[in-house]
Amino acid sequence: MEDGASRVIASRRGGVGEGLSGRVAEAAHGIKFEDMPADVVEMAKILMLDALGIAFASRAELFAEQALAGVGRISGDGGATVVGSARTVDPGSAALLNGLLIHGLDFDDTHLSGVLHTSAGVLPAALAAGELEGRSGREVLRAFVLGTEVAARVGMAAAGRFHKQGFHPTGVAGAFGAAVAAGLLFGLDARELATAQGIVGSMASGILEFLEEGTWTKRVHPGWSAKAGLTAASLAGAGFTGPSAVYEGRYGLYASHLGTRDLPLQAVAEGLGERWEVLNVAVKPYPACHFVHAFIDAALELLQGEGFAAEDVDRITCKIAAEEVEAVCEPVENKRRPKSTYDAQFSVPYVVASAIVRRRRLGIKDFDEESIGDEAVLDLAGRVDYEVDPEAGFPDHFSGEVVIALRDGRTISWREQVNRGAPDRPLGRDEIREKFDLNASVKLSKEQAALVAGRIEGLDESGSIEGVTRALRVETGSARLM
Question: Which residue spans adopt a coiled-coil conformation according to this UniProt entry (predicted)?
Answer without folding.
Answer: none
